Amino acid sequence: MANSVEFVVQFLATARAGCVAVPLNPAYTASELGSYLRDADVSVVVFDEPRRATVDQARACSGSSARPICVTSPGPRLAAVAAELPAVGSLAERPVLYGYSSGSTGTPKRVTRLQRHLVAEAVGFDSSVGLLPDDVILAVVPLFHAHGYGNGLLASLRSGAALVVAPEFRRRATLELICDEGVTTFPAVPFMVEMLAGLPSSAGADIGRLRWCFSAGAPMSRSIYDAFNDRYGVPVRNLYGCTEAGSVTANLAEDPTATAESVGRPLGTIEIEVVGVDGRSLSPGETGEIAITSPAMAGRYDGLAEASDESFCDGRFLSGDLGHLDATGNLFVTGRRKLFIATNGLKVDPFEVEAALARHPAVREVVVVGVPGVHGSETVKAVVVANGSCDRKELVAWCRLHLAEFKVPRTIEFRDEIPRSPLGKILRKYLVESAPTKVSSSTDA
Question: Fewest Cβ atoms nearer than 10 Å: which of 133, 381, 408, 443?
């Protein structure tokens, strides 16, 4: 469901009943939702009225026997249904949350986070940021997302701060909420920050209580930082985290201007290393893979032994993100070892989009890449080699049947062939820009 007070109530009811919550994006199609119902062996699916048809279709296509509960209609409440389900494990070791992280295999990877993992994340964030009961946190980042969930919901539960829940981001309405509710802490993504910085007629907006603005989900450029700081006098601080470990680092410097591009230092007792391909720790300034050691992180991917062995090693989680530390321990994220596309704070697995397009009979070959967007984010681009006649509108309609809207390619380019190295490896870097020759058609959504 969308952000709402009901979302919070349902999560707490699930935890109290000793069950596991599986927060999912309400933009998912029935096909996508059905795959999660199967993978998580869902017993109960809770939704709001706009999602009723999608849930019905998902249950039918997946063969799921999950009991449906619409929170806006009369009928059984979650607490009554959950009472029939057995609680498992001691309190600290009880599974509370299933999180899904996209992977290079094209299949979302599930991690189980225990009660102690969530407590550790909340304690680490709270002890570092220092939230108080009179703080007010704005939850406009989706609560199904690790950023909104951890730095909104968990942070408020731990600190006693008020949580203002907004169902969607609209820049003028968001600014009004910050002013009217006396918001002190604003978890955001770069797109939101840039939109607020460019809002016309925002002069005189009283955001005097706002002291923490955290940007996560995608890199925030220095230009966005400067624009927001110049407009509102509040520095936006990069925060780094992941589904597997929750919040990891944040730039909490008293004046972060000199290190605006840094995601800061570890929260709480978390440890960060930058490691080479051989697993050894690298020196400050050397770029390598970011390795995380945290009491809040899961231990494995559920049911995926090979992926687990690759990513969870010697008590560390190898994030797949590339970066370096400076001499004072500030972390800078510079890229990704894996090919995720970061679009407006959400992660898109290009292999999942490729798999959907490849099922279309007119598509002979397809490669999906991320291209720079207009708001410091990326957009999804598909390069297609077609079997005969094929047009963009047909492929976009096909994608919308099988993928959430944020995964649908915004650009589809037709080529006669996919560029490859002499060894046959796809040269993705040559697909980011439009081909100078042999292009059948190219258009933007």
Answer: 133
Q: In the chain, pLDDT over 70 holds for what percent of residues?
A: 90
Evaluate whether 264 touches 138 at the Cβ level (below 8 Å): no
Query: Is the domain of 356 the same as that of 405?
Result: yes
Per the structure, how many domains does the chain have?
Answer: 2
What gap in Å lies between CA 445 and CA 428, rounded to an integer?
A: 21
For 275-331, how does the pLDDT look when each residue is reduced to its tens digit (9 = 90+)? 998 889 999 999 999 999 999 999 999 999 999 999 999 999 999 898 999 999 999
Token pair, residue 188, equals 């955001």
User: Is residue 247 over pLDDT 90?
Assistant: yes
Whether 432 and 310 map to the same domain: the answer is no
pLDDT attached to residue 445: 40
pTM score, whole prediction: 0.80
User: 162 falls in which pLDDT band (50, 70, 90)?
Assistant: very high
Please give the structure tokens belonging to residue 274.
């930058």
H, E, C per residue of the chain: CCCCHHHHHHHHHHHHCCCCECCCCCCCCHHHHHHHHHHCCCCEEEECHHHHHHHHHHHHHHCCCCEEEECCCCCCCHHHHHCCCCCCCCCCCCEEEEEEECCCCCCCEEEEEEHHHHHHHHHHHHHHHCCCCCCEEEECCCCCCHHHHHHHHHHHHHHCCEEEECCCCCHHHHHHHHHHCCCCEEEECHHHHHHHHCCCCCCCCCCCCCCEEEECCCCCCHHHHHHHHHHHCCCEEEEEEECCCEEEEECCCCCHHHHCCCCEEECCCCEEEEECCCCCECCCCCCEEEEEECCCCCCCCCCCHHHHHHHEECCEEEEEEEEEECCCCCEEEEEECCCCEEECCEEECHHHHHHHHHCCCCEEEEEEEEEECCCCCEEEEEEEEECCCCCHHHHHHHHHHHCCHHHCCCEEEEECCCCECCCCCECHHHCCCCCCCCEEEEEEC
Residue 182, sorted as left (phi over 0), alpha (psi -120 to 50) or beta, turns out to be left
Last residue of a domain, one of 270, 302, 336: 336
Whether residues 153 and 266 share a domain: the answer is yes
Q: How many residues does the chain have?
A: 445
Residues 346 and 327 in one domain: no
Pick the last residue of a domain from 336, 357, 383.
Answer: 336
pLDDT given at position 444: 38
d(CA 384, CA 73): 44
